[in-house]
């Protein structure tokens, strides 16, 4: 895990050694700038490009349309951080995106920090405690042949049909953030964990360890099982083919509430490590008032907005504080994040599921998924399952559907994912603050991927089954493709560019350099013959055929042609032998019979000769004779 630890340091999300909680709540210290001059900026941005995971950089560039890094990715100025530490405060976490550090400091230290000239403001670190409904232990687990006890909850989202068309989440990387993860359950036997980080203890152990409250990893284990668990016919999560990044960011003890600086640190780490998606079921409701739930005020909401701008698709719980209006939690208030409400297994919205709207009037939650009496892997066992409740469970189920869709459509952005899920949910035309746009329908969202064909694997589906790919046997032909010089309608706009024609059938198209698409003897690379035609399309004819005007030119006078020597009547242009022919008669080669000077020679009085006019008039007939025609 040395490489992972190195990246944590490089991204500025350094977890310091744990210590007992301070008497005063921890504080955010926001800096006014990053102390980087214009001359230094390019060098530090280039360094940051190299420190990001390549997958993260590609995602950012695809979604943002720029180089993928900007000043937000630079860590707070080291001099600023050192000055804060010099007051005696203990630095806990550092955030690039917020340009801030969190500290533990007493009143005197906070006063000293506030007086530093580069400090913009101080703000308490928000803290909260999870308000999950306790699990319901089932007397007997119901099983079916396909997905075991999870069959009903998966059916409600149309997941079995998505799995039947081959979707498992393969190739998708999901960042999961929670209280910890114990991977001893057999549902995780095939799980691919790419990296893990504990922001509570400052190490890479995400299961319970000394210093954690007993059972701290319980909630994260349950959540992870709903995304990626797989236990044959006993149980299945939604997307068992995904790879995961795991961040442990939450404390569970009453005396150790969840703190948003750990949340921000985990989010920045997961995004920088290359996650395609992020899911977390934690939110903040005790610290922030409804008036502050506008998607811009809460610190976790500000961090989530940056992650979304970087192309990270995000799922979050809307909260368990319902049924009153305006009971959502941060960061569910962010515009663009996918916030989940919960139903029971009959599709009825649970009373505890938080309702919207946001303070600025936007509908929340966005969508619904099962969250009451949901079957999960039972933590602390090897192969047992139980039922549990909470929007914390609806969220990973929805995130799993998102992973299946991202496998089907890898170019989905946060905006497009949200639009797709909303448009295909149970009531897309009548969203409300009880259940948003309705229950997720994974099969409807998958659309043509599961009901059509993509024979050439280009991500577009055949016209024959409702798609837009005009040639499903050619991966270079689909809407939006680049036109290439092949004579085909590559971009499926029902038109082939005129320069892609091969009118003379010589195997060379106008776009490939054919300078005369009516003459099969003319194309790049054709043999030049003595016919005063630019056969090889290089823009030049035979030197002896260069037109003259009667004035002196380089290398000869007006009567001698380019060689400077007078033409010899009867000499062909190819053999150098002299064979008299009648004036004006064309030679067998198609060249004029008047001699080496050829058709470009002028008479003494500067007028064009009659045989030249005749020769030009005859060119179309001579062009029908193929000379070195290239194979198709």
UniProtKB/TrEMBL annotation:
InterPro entries: MYXO-CTERM (IPR024038), Peptidase_S8/S53_dom (IPR000209), Peptidase_S8/S53_dom_sf (IPR036852), Peptidase_S8_Ser-AS (IPR023828), Peptidase_S8_subtilisin-like (IPR050131), Peptidase_S8_subtilisin-rel (IPR015500), Put_metal-bd (IPR021655). The keyword Protein transport does not apply. Residues 561-586 have a biased composition (Low complexity). Residues 169-438 form the Peptidase S8/S53 domain. The keyword Repeat does not apply. It holds the Pfam family Peptidase_S8. Residues 543-602 are annotated as: Disordered. Keywords: Hydrolase, Protease, Serine protease. SUPFAM superfamilies: Subtilisin-like (SSF52743). The active site is at 178 (charge relay system), 219 (charge relay system), 392 (charge relay system). NCBIfam families: MYXO-CTERM. PANTHER family: EGF-LIKE DOMAIN-CONTAINING PROTEIN (PTHR43806:SF67), PEPTIDASE S8 (PTHR43806). Belongs to the peptidase S8 family. This is S8 family serine peptidase. It comes from Nannocystis radixulma.
């Amino acid at each position: 895990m040395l490489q992972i630890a190195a990246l944590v340091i490089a991204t500025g999300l350094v977890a310091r050694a744990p210590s007992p909680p301070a008497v005063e709540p921890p504080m955010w210290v926001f800096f006014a700038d990053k102390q980087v001059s214009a001359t230094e900026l390019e060098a530090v941005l280039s360094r940051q490009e190299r420190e990001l995971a390549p997958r993260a950089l590609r995602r950012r560039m695809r979604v943002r349309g720029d180089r993928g890094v900007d000043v937000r990715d630079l860590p707070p100025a080291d001099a600023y951080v050192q000055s804060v530490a010099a007051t005696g405060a203990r630095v806990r976490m550092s955030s690039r995106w917020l340009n801030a550090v969190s500290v533990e400091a007493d009143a005197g230290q906070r006063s000293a920090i506030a007086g530093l000239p580069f400090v913009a403001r101080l703000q308490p670190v928000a803290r909260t405690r999870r308000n999950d409904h306790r699990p319901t232990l089932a007397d007997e687990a119901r099983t079916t042949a396909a997905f075991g006890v999870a069959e009903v909850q998966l059916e409600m989202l149309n997941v079995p049909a998505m799995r039947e068309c081959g979707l498992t989440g393969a190739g998708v990387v999901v960042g999961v953030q929670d209280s910890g993860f114990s991977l001893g359950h057999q549902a995780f036997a095939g799980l691919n964990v790419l990296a893990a980080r504990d922001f509570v203890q400052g190490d890479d152990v995400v299961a319970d360890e000394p210093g954690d409250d007993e059972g701290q990893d319980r909630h994260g284990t349950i959540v992870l099982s709903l995304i990626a668990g797989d236990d044959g016919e006993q149980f299945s999560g939604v997307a068992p083919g995904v790879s995961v990044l795991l961040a442990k960011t939450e404390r569970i003890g009453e005396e150790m509430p969840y703190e948003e600086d750990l949340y921000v640190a985990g989010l920045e780490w997961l995004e920088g490590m290359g996650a395609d998606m992020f899911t977390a079921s934690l939110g903040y409701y005790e610290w922030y008032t409804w008036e502050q739930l506008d998607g811009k005020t809460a610190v976790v909401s500000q961090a989530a907005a940056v992650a979304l701008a970087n192309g990270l698709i995000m799922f979050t719980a809307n909260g368990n504080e319902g049924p009153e209006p305006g009971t959502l939690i941060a960061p569910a208030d962010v515009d663009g994040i996918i916030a989940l409400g919960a139903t029971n297994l009959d599709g009825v919205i649970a009373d505890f599921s938080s309702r919207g709207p946001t303070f600025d009037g936007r509908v929340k939650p966005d969508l619904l998924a099962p969250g009451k009496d949901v079957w999960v892997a039972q933590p602390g066992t090897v192969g047992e399952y139980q039922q549990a409740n909470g929007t914390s469970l609806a969220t990973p189920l929805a995130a799993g559907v998102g992973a299946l869709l991202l496998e089907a459509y890898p170019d989905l952005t946060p905006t497009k994912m949200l639009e797709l899920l909303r448009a295909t949910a149970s009531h897309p035309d009548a969203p409300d603050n009880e259940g948003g746009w309705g229950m997720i329908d994974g099969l409807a969202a998958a659309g043509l991927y599961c009901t059509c064909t993509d024979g050439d694997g280009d991500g577009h589906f055949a016209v024959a089954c409702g798609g837009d790919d005009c040639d499903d046997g050619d991966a270079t032909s689909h809407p939006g493709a680049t036109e290439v010089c092949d004579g085909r309608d590559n971009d499926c706009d029902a038109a082939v560019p005129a320069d892609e024609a091969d009118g003379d059938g010589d195997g060379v198209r106008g776009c490939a350099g054919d300078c005369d698409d009516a003459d099969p003897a003319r194309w790049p690379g054709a043999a030049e013959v003595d016919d005063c035609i630019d056969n090889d399309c290089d823009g030049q004819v035979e030197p002896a055929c260069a037109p003259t005007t009667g004035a002196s030119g380089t290398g000869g006078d007006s009567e001698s042609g380019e060689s400077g020597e007078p033409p010899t009547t009867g000499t062909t242009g190819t053999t150098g032998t002299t064979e008299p022919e009648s004036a004006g008669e064309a030679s067998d080669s198609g060249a004029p019979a008047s001699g080496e000077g050829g058709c470009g020679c002028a008479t003494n009085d500067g007028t064009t000769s009659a045989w030249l006019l005749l020769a030009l008039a005859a060119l179309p007939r001579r062009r029908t004779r193929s000379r070195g025609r290239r194979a198709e």
